[in-house]
């Protein structure tokens, strides 16, 4: 295997950051790091933000310098899903987000992944939509607010969660409608 380029290294770094992020988030809740759970939450939040920013950076670098690879096309969206799903599942464990909301978000990701698999079998490349990008942005902001767990921002956190959920459903519908021909049998 040839040397990995910078965007792929950033993607792998994002995957690696999931482990300390989850350990800190859940360990802080469980008291593994002593009494000061707020400090642990802040460190976990910083790791989540860094991991999220690598998603923006790796894609921009890959496109700008023509460093797009098959590994990157596969791992980048997978790394994003792993990061967000790990955060959401940890937040359910902590009682900061209802499980039904996480089920909606994760179900959308499974549906889109399956859809992309079928498209790939038909040699169809499906680009990300603006709805999907808005959804991702609101999900990341929602997760940050939930990790921060600031009582004075609870109303804002709830509003952002509802916007993220609406965008999750809207982006799924948009994706399926725009690419419905992928599901047609060609035999």
Description:
The protein is an all-alpha fold and 187 residues long. The chain has one domain (6-182): CDP-alcohol phosphotransferase transmembrane (TM) domain (Four Helix Bundle (Hemerythrin (Met), subunit A), Up-down Bundle). The chain has 6 helices and no strands. Helix 1 packs antiparallel against helix 2 and helix 3 runs parallel beside helix 5 (130-148). The longest helix has 28 residues, at 37-64. It starts with 5 loop residues before the first helix and ends in a 9-residue tail after the last helix.
Summarize the structure.
The chain is mostly helical. It has six helices and no strands.
- Return Rg in Å: 18 Å
Major β-sheet annotation: none
* Helix and strand sequence: HHHHHH
Question: At the fourth CATH level, what is the homologous superfamily?
Answer: CDP-alcohol phosphotransferase transmembrane (TM) domain
CATH topology: Four Helix Bundle (Hemerythrin (Met), subunit A)
Please state roughly what percent of the residues sit in beta strands, choosing from under 5%, 5-15%, 15-25%, 25-35%, 35-45% or over 45%: under 5%
Number of strand elements: 0
Ends distance: 37 Å
Instruction: State the CATH class.
Output: Mainly Alpha
Q: Helix- and strand-based class?
A: mainly alpha
Counting structural domains, the number is 1
């Amino acid at each position: 295997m040839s040397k990995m380029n910078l965007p792929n290294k950033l993607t792998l770094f994002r995957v690696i950051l999931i482990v300390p992020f989850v350990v800190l988030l859940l360990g802080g809740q469980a008291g593994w790091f002593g009494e000061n759970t707020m400090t642990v939450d802040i460190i976990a939040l910083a790791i989540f933000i860094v991991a999220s920013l690598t998603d923006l950076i790796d894609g921009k670098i890959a496109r700008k310098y023509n460093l797009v690879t098959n590994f990157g096309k596969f791992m980048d969206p997978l790394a994003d899903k792993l990061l967000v799903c790990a955060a959401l599942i940890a937040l359910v464990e902590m009682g900061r987000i209802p499980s039904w909301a996480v089920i909606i978000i994760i179900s959308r990701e499974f549906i889109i992944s399956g859809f992309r698999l079928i498209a790939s079998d038909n040699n169809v490349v499906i680009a990300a939509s603006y709805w999907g990008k808005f959804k991702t942005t609101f999900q990341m902001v929602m997760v940050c607010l939930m990790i921060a767990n600031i009582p004075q921002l609870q109303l804002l956190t709830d509003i952002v969660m509802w916007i993220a959920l609406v965008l999750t459903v809207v982006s799924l519908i948009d994706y399926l409608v725009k690419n419905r021909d992928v599901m047609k049998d060609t035999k």
